[in-house]
Structure formats: structure tokens, C-alpha cells
Write a structure and sequence with these properties.
This protein has 13 helices and 16 strands. By secondary structure, the chain is α/β, with parallel strands linked by helices.
């Protein structure tokens, strides 16, 4: 590998809610503002597409909101210069298998490559290789286990599974010069990795990944260099409206501008921005905003290099959030439950949404880690 490649990676894009009409109009300048030039100047541009693109709304049964975006979203992204979108996230199956198929079809028609999801697990595990300047950049995408994960016989996203990704990364090393892992993982609205998330990212480096970017947290996160490889623990939202009030970190994100060097190392140049439904939706930070973000980033980066500090910060979050989760899982006990079980009516005590939330807590890696940590600490 003798040439350099400029790569830009963008965080979560959701063309639903307050952005639906803007995407339907198809004006990329209104949406992306100064960021569109960053896309144009790059050799490769990729983003996480956080919703299925379909006009047929058939929301699945799950906990949390079911999202969707207009099919025109793919055209807007392609027109802005994006090369590919990652579909390995917890919302890509919100409108069922037909919603995923519609997304894949409209992306293909627009000339956008997709990675991280497919008709079955075998398809979802397939990496994407893009060659620029004689350099083969391989992308491998995974998401935590929620309601969107593919199986051997059903469509969905590629889930985090060590038995799979070790083999997949090993195979990708032979076919590419530089490996990027996009990981949909972490605690929402939390700017540090969980201890297990950090272990996973460092294991990915040890197994051949050159750059790891975590998405999903809806806020910018710490970043570190581990064995001379860059790990970014959160990009925030690129284009994502929210229902109800939001916290400040929801609106501030970072574009990962990467220069891939000839020695397989890379330089990370963060580009911070503010996103909202006002036009243009993406704007540069003010001087005071930039100063505040920079100070916070320095503090996060100092913390993340020490796993013990990461664990201590995580314990604070666990102590804050676990009681609410336990309340939901605790359920009913005593004579009433025993009587209803005998009558086969015990399920009436729990709403469908409660059962689905409990299921998500038990199988999602971050939710499960939070509960396990709480019980261990007790």
C-alpha cells in the first residue's frame, strides 16, 4: 500500500420526524450545510443509516420507537457524495423484512453501497470493500442484540458474535489493506465505553482491525489510541430528530475525518458540528461551544485510557440506572401470582410493552452488562 486515502465517517442518520419533509424535498444543501463539502473532498464517505427507507409502514413489535424514512433519502445521500451506508443498527428492522428490502433496493437504485444487513445472517456478515487510489478499504459492521438481528433464516443486521467476527476479520485481512469496524454499541447518552465494550474494541484491534468507530450512543464519546490504532467511542447524531425534550449532547456530533497512511496507520481529524431541524441542519460550532466540547473531550480521553477509571465511571451509571430496570423486571410475587399461574392468567399482569422491554434488557449486551454489574456490586 503506497497511496493515501481520505475517509470520512458520519454518525446516525434518521430521516424521520422533523427531517422527513426535508429529505422528501431532496435538497442536500439544506440538510448538510458545510458538511457536504467535507463529503465531496473525501475519497470515501460512509454513514450509519438509522432507519429503514420505505413508504409502507408495518412496524414490528418491539420496545422503543419504530422509525422510518422516505425512500428519497437514498437519493439525497448519493447526491451529496456518500458512497455507502451501514445498516447494522437497532432500527433497521423497525418496519419488518419488507422495510429492509425496500431500503436495500432504493440504495441500490441510488448507487449507494450497503453493509451490515441482509436477507439472512450470512448476507449480513458480508463486509464491504471499496478501493481508492489502489488501496482496498474493508468495512465490517455489527450491532448489539436487540430486535433487528438477522438469523440463518431471517433478514436483519449483523449481530455482535465473537465466534463470527473473529473469522470474518481474519478473512477480511487477506482481501483488504485497511479494516474499518463500525460498531453499533454502547450506552445511550453516555460518553464513555462500558468496560465490556472497551474490551471488545481492543480485542478487535488485536485481531486485525485498523480503525473502530462506535455509533448508537447519540452523543460524542471518548477516543483513544490502542496499539497505535484509533478507537472512537461515539460520534453522536448526524441527522436525527427526537420526540420530546433533548439534552445538549443530542445535538452535537463529530465527523471522523480519517487519513489512511501508507503504513496502514491513520490520522483522525475530528470535525465537530451542531445538528437540528433548522436549516441548514448542520452548522459549525460557535467559539464558546467549541471551547466547551474541546475541554470535555480532553477529560474523556484522559479517562478512557485507564480501564479502571472506565470501570469506576460505569459503576456510577449502574448505580443510577439499574434500579429503574430492576423495578421493571421484578414483577409480582406472592399468593396473587401463584393463583393466576394456576389459572394460566399470569401474563395478564404484564403489558406487552413490559415483556418486550424485559426481553431487550436480557439480550442486549449493554443492558445485560448494566444489570450484571449492579448485582456484582451488591
Amino acid at each position: 500500500m503506497q497511496n493515501e486515502v481520505s475517509l470520512v465517517i458520519f454518525g446516525d442518520i434518521c430521516s424521520d420526524r422533523g427531517f422527513r419533509q426535508i429529505f422528501s424535498k431532496g435538497n442536500s444543501e439544506e440538510l448538510f450545510g458545510f458538511a457536504e463539502q467535507i463529503v465531496s473532498d473525501s475519497d470515501i464517505a460512509i454513514a450509519n443509516l438509522e432507519c429503514p427507507l420505505t413508504d409502507s409502514l408495518e412496524p414490528i413489535r418491539k420496545s422503543g420507537p419504530c422509525l422510518s424514512g422516505p425512500p428519497e433519502t437514498a437519493i439525497v445521500l448519493a447526491r451529496a457524495g456518500f458512497d455507502a451506508v451501514c445498516l447494522a443498527n437497532n432500527h433497521i428492522m423497525d418496519q419488518g423484512e419488507d422495510g429492509l428490502r425496500s431500503t436495500i433496493n432504493v440504495c441500490d437504485e441510488a448507487g449507494l453501497e450497503i453493509v451490515g444487513a441482509g436477507e439472512n445472517l450470512q448476507e449480513a456478515r458480508q463486509p464491504l470493500i471499496i478501493e481508492r487510489n489502489g488501496v482496498r478499504v474493508g468495512f465490517y459492521c455489527m450491532a448489539e442484540t436487540e430486535f433487528s438481528i438477522a438469523s440463518d433464516s431471517s433478514a436483519g443486521a449483523n449481530g455482535i458474535d465473537a465466534a463470527s467476527w473473529v473469522n470474518d476479520i481474519t478473512g477480511l485481512k487477506v482481501r483488504s489493506d485497511f479494516i474499518v469496524v463500525l460498531l453499533h454499541s454502547g450506552k445511550e447518552n453516555y460518553q464513555l465505553p462500558t468496560p465490556l465494550q472497551q474490551q471488545l474494541c481492543r480485542n478487535l484491534v488485536r485481531n486485525g482491525a485498523d480503525l473502530i468507530v462506535c455509533q448508537h450512543s447519540h452523543c460524542i464519546g471518548a477516543y483513544e489510541k490502542y496499539q497505535n490504532k484509533v478507537i472512537i467511542y461515539g460520534q453522536g447524531n448526524f441527522i436525527f430528530d427526537s420526540v420530546g425534550p433533548t439534552i445538549d449532547t443530542w445535538h452535537i456530533g463529530v465527523i471522523a475525518r480519517i487519513c489512511i497512511n501508507s503504513d496502514r496507520s491513520c490520522k483522525f481529524d475530528p470535525v465537530y458540528y451542531y445538528q437540528s431541524t433548522r436549516q441548514p441542519s448542520i452548522r459549525a460550532l460557535t467559539e464558546s461551544e467549541m471551547r466547551e466540547v474541546t475541554e470535555r473531550q480532553i477529560s474523556l480521553n484522559k479517562t478512557v485510557v485507564d480501564p479502571e477509571s472506565v470501570k469506576n465511571e460505569w459503576n456510577i451509571i449502574v448505580g443510577r440506572d439499574a434500579p429503574n430496570m430492576l423495578y421493571l423486571l421484578s414483577g409480582y410475587r406472592g399468593l396473587l401470582l401463584r393463583i393466576l399461574r394456576r389459572l394460566g392468567l399470569h401474563k395478564l399482569l404484564y403489558k406487552n410493552t413490559t415483556r418486550l422491554s424485559a426481553l431487550n434488557m436480557l439480550r442486549c449486551q449493554t443492558h445485560r452488562e448494566l444489570l450484571e454489574t449492579y448485582f456484582e456490586n451488591e
